[in-house]
Specification:
By secondary structure, this protein is an alpha+beta fold. It is built from 5 helices and 16 strands. Bound molecules: 2-oxoglutaric acid.
Length: 275
């Protein structure tokens, strides 16, 4: 088992995140990037806007990442042995676009209670300060949920452009990863990311999130898969695992899952953004 060490767990408890954790080789990460680019070329638009979510329901390669035992060993160290995978998002920043992620806390709008869950951010390309890696406000997970202003900025990659103001940038730490490494972050940690100023894409595949089977979705419906252990609570509906890329029935199911997800993301909001 590739469980987290006591030192890593202490780091997670203290800082609200851990990185880097090695998962894939750079060669494997390249293969994953190829899968994204193949879908983009053959099925244009399928991974855009709301379609950036739940790619693991239409691609066996992404399905295998979600069920990767190395990732799950680390996740188990944090949330225990009964693990459900309840969603994924591709956070892609193309060069010359102005995409950014405002400082926010995931727990604010996601509806997953209690907070026995963790987000895995898998780097498909190298990520660094130049291409807009995430920045974590160390230790901020220990405070309450903060006020988020809903800005709906055009270039914000978050659904509502939800923004925590006055984050002390000097207390935020860049999460620098090599392609194939991942970070894990806490539902309450304040984090965000800046522009991609490089000449290549910055790609993160984010499992958001791995939840303990005791976690319910209080705002709507999410389709889960059993990743490890048992689901004694049966709070959620289940999604099948894809065996073929872009199978017709999987595409149809993913569309439904995304429509339900959108209801969660915009719950209580009069306005909708593009994601
Ligand atoms: O990819 C990014 O820059 C931010 C992603 C994020 O906010 C998250 O994974 O919770």
């Amino acid at each position: 088992m590739d469980k987290l060490t006591i030192k890593q767990l202490r780091q997670y408890e203290k800082n609200g995140y851990i990185s880097p954790i090695d998962v894939f080789s750079s060669k494997q990460a390249k293969k994953i990037r190829k899968e994204i680019e193949e879908i983009e070329n053959k099925w244009p638009g399928e991974l855009e806007e709301l379609g950036r979510n739940y790619v693991h329901l239409i691609s066996p390669i992404f399905d295998k990442i979600v069920h990767n035992s190395k990732i799950l060993d680390s996740v188990e160290s944090i949330i225990g042995k009964n693990i459900l995978a309840c969603g994924t998002t591709l956070f892609i920043k193309n060069p010359k676009e102005k995409g950014f992620v405002s400082f926010h806390q995931d727990a604010k709008y996601i509806g997953l209670e209690p907070h026995n869950w963790v987000t895995a951010w898998v780097a498909i390309t190298d990520v660094n300060e130049k291409n807009g890696c995430m920045r974590m406000w160390k230790g901020s997970h220990k405070n309450n949920l903060k006020y988020h202003e809903q800005r709906f900025d055009e270039n914000n990659l978050l659904t509502r452009g939800q923004t925590i103001e006055n984050v002390p940038i000097n207390k935020t730490i860049p999460v620098i990863l090599k392609a194939g490494q991942m970070s894990l972050h806490h539902p309450m940690i304040v984090h965000g990311s800046g522009l991609n100023k490089s000449n290549d894409r910055r790609i993160g595949f984010v499992i958001q999130s791995y939840i303990g089977s005791n976690v319910n979705q209080i705002l709507g419906k999410m389709y889960v898969q059993l990743a490890r252990g048992k689901d004694n609570y049966k709070y959620h509906q289940y999604a099948n695992r894809p065996t073929k890329l872009m199978n017709k029935n999987d595409i149809k199911f993913r569309k439904k899952a995304n429509e339900e997800l959108s209801k969660i993301f915009y719950s209580g909001s009069k306005k909708k953004g593009k994601y």
